[in-house]
Amino acid sequence: MATLPSLFISHGGPNIVIDDIAARHFLEGIPALIERPKAIVIMSAHFETGGVSVVTDPHPEMIYDFGGFAPELYRMVYPAPGEPKLAERVFSMLDEAGLAPTRCERRGYDHGTWTPLKLAFPEADIPVVQVSIDPDRDARWHYAVGRALAPLRKEGILLIGSGHITHNLRAVITVMRTGRPIDPQIGERFNAFTDWFAEKFAEGDTEALFDWRRKAPFPTDNHPTDEHLMPIFFALGAAGDGAHAERVHASREYGYFAYDSYLFQ
């Protein structure tokens, strides 16, 4: 089996599984981008712990970590199995890298995990192991978590970071609730941010990317808090040294919600 790439996906809200938008259709098309994986290791921005934790649950249930959405979303199930043996291996690899992981024996799939996987792999027959972010750690640390797991790609295991390239919910919700057109001046701040990331990935400038809070344009407008951007660094690290980044999807919703997704190999 060929070495798989790693992926960063902007997962959207849970309604992505029912809305007719470009980001949904991109996620549905992931099987055309890569070989079918034997298993998936995914870091979701909605799984936060101190340090990195590995889920060893053999039968994860559902976490409906959202409110005010269509009733049908609360009835959806993604019954993909966990994989305790792989989880223990992930734990060992992180431990050997000096990252002091912990185990999480019971945890379901939050919407950062189940919504994109339901679209990409609807049969739910690929085992999934979840790893957490630490919202108090920086980009370089999350890169190290991915880097420690990079060898798994040679075994047909897909490593995914699930977050969002922009995540200013206040701006998005204002447009949703009021129906007002986006402010062009504010919209340009989002364009500048996503374009900067695309440029730095194209240049292979990981040091600038690690220092995004100081060097990227308008970081606070795009990410009032860090957690939804950290999975992109996990995916970058998971691709190993000298990785090439390809922006495989870019679309917008409500003007401010960017769905950029990247393939690293």
From TrEMBL:
GO MF terms, alphabetically ordered: dioxygenase activity
Domain Extradiol ring-cleavage dioxygenase class III enzyme subunit B: 35-252
Keywords assigned by UniProt, alphabetized: Dioxygenase, Metal-binding, Oxidoreductase, Zinc
Reported cofactor(s): Zn(2+)
A Pfam family annotated for this UniProt entry: LigB
EC number(s) stated in the UniProt entry for this protein: 1.13.-.-
Highest taxon of the lineage: Bacteria
InterPro entries linked to this entry: Extradiol_dOase_DODA, Xdiol_dOase_suB
SUPFAM superfamilies given in the database record: LigB-like
Assigned protein family: Belongs to the DODA-type extradiol aromatic ring-opening dioxygenase family.
Protein name: Class III extradiol ring-cleavage dioxygenase
Organism from which the protein derives: Aquibium pacificus
